[in-house]
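Quick one, tokens below:
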């Protein structure tokens, strides 16, 4: 795992391709092809004020990534994207990326994430990591999104590993997280 730079044209292009493949699967799962990332150009993606963490193969290819933004006033991160190349589904990459983000890069931050309410594998991932559903909304009629929050208590590691003792809450079929 390593942080990814969208300033690098080859990395950005690969992340864009992986995201499109992953979101095409999610679009099928939730029955909605209007997911903004599916229509986003490479330039638009690169312009996003996000940090990127990737799971990279031995030959240097991006197999999965997570992108997030730290929220200014809160000690929270807003997870914007969790994507796994469909060729790398069901290998735990989404879980590992999120755990690395939450345990190593933002250990004292709460976390927010949204997903299609009908994307049962993603909902299961977030719940398994300790996220709690805090609401939902319809960006367009008939397309329900679910909003989740992971609340930290005193910066504890909610996985219950050696660094802490609290509690933290994937995607089943072929989904962007590959779980």
């Amino acid at each position: 795992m390593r942080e990814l730079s969208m300033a690098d044209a080859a990395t950005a292009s690969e992340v864009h391709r992986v995201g499109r493949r992953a979101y095409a699967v999610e679009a099928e799962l939730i029955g909605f092809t209007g997911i903004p990332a599916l229509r986003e150009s490479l330039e638009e993606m690169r312009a996003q004020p996000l940090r990127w963490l990737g799971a990279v193969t031995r030959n240097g290819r991006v197999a999965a990534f997570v992108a997030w933004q730290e929220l200014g006033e809160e000690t929270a991160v807003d997870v914007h994207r969790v994507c796994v190349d469909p060729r790398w589904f069901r290998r735990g990459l989404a879980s590992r990326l999120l755990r690395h983000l939450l345990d190593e890069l933002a250990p004292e931050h709460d976390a927010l994430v949204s997903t299609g309410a009908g994307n049962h594998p993603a909902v299961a991932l977030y719940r398994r990591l300790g996220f709690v559903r805090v609401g939902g909304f319809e960006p367009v009629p008939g397309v329900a999104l679910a909003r989740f929050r992971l609340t930290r208590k005193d910066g504890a590691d909610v996985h219950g590993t050696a660094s802490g003792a609290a509690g933290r809450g994937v995607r089943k079929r072929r989904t962007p997280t590959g779980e």
